[in-house]
Automatic annotation (TrEMBL):
<dbReference type="GO" id="GO:0006269">
    <property type="term" value="P:DNA replication, synthesis of primer"/>
</dbReference>
<dbReference type="GO" id="GO:0006270">
    <property type="term" value="P:DNA replication initiation"/>
</dbReference>
<dbReference type="InterPro" id="IPR007238">
    <property type="entry name" value="DNA_primase_lsu_euk/arc"/>
</dbReference>
<dbReference type="Pfam" id="PF26466">
    <property type="entry name" value="DNA_primase_lrg_N"/>
</dbReference>
<dbReference type="GO" id="GO:0005658">
    <property type="term" value="C:alpha DNA polymerase:primase complex"/>
</dbReference>
<dbReference type="GO" id="GO:0046872">
    <property type="term" value="F:metal ion binding"/>
</dbReference>
<dbReference type="GO" id="GO:0051539">
    <property type="term" value="F:4 iron, 4 sulfur cluster binding"/>
</dbReference>
<feature type="region of interest" description="Disordered">
    <location>
        <begin position="67"/>
        <end position="90"/>
    </location>
</feature>
<protein>
    <recommendedName>
        <fullName>DNA primase large subunit</fullName>
    </recommendedName>
</protein>
Length: 207
């Protein structure tokens, strides 16, 4: 058996609310068999390899997304916690969290491995976050103490053309669709999004 996590408390990786997404702030302390350890780690590695391929610009976005979705559904689904699927959703969330920490241990040996792991995990998190509904995103932020102010409709309409340019450049398939919910985040709190040009910046506030 393998023990994973903080020995100060024993946690069964519960997730509550609409979203099963996690920030992986703390490793849970649970007992898992060696077979589960291997299975979860291999499944997540399949997913991260698919994420790496998803980031390749040489393949059309539609094809990349389809392949990634297929791999996620097979190896690492995250279901919404609908009433009739709560048990399965919690099992999915437990596997997601545990497998993250299994591979975090495996990829901590060198700077190159750490960089590769962080790059794929960050991309996977952003991809999953983008798939959440407005209500799920708000619930996720509340669960994790992220008290960012949501932009009002008036603020979004005043910047509509600029926001669409940023959004459409990152995801051409949504061109022509209504703008989603936006949150105002201080410049220094998500520099990776600035680096990849996924935000609109105005007076050191990002949308």
């Amino acid at each position: 058996m393998q023990n994973v996590g903080n020995s100060r408390r024993r946690e069964q990786v519960p997730r509550h609310g609409l979203s099963m997404l996690s920030l992986y702030n703390e490793a849970p302390l649970v007992e898992v068999s060696l077979e589960q350890f291997e299975e979860f780690a291999i499944d997540r590695l399949h997913v991260l390899k698919a994420v790496e391929n998803y980031r390749l610009r040489s393949v059309q976005m539609k094809d990349r997304e389809g392949r990634l979705e297929k791999t996620l559904n097979k190896h690492m689904p995250l279901r919404s916690a609908a009433p009739r699927r709560t048990g399965q959703a919690e099992d999915d969330a437990a596997k997601d969290v545990l497998s993250h920490f299994f591979l975090r241990m495996a990829f901590c040996q060198t700077e190159e491995l750490r960089r590769w792991f962080l790059t794929q995990e960050s991309t996977l998190f952003r991809y999953r976050l983008d798939k959440l509904t407005r209500e799920e995103k708000i619930q996720f932020m509340k669960q994790n103490g992220l008290s960012y102010e949501e932009a009002t409709m008036k603020e979004i309409e005043a910047r509509q053309s600029k926001l669409k340019v940023v959004r459409d450049a990152n995801d051409p398939k949504v061109r022509g669709k209504p703008l989603p919910a936006y949150f105002k985040v201080p410049f220094t709190e998500a520099l990776d999004l600035v680096a990849t040009r996924r935000v609109y910046i105005e007076a050191v506030i990002r949308f």
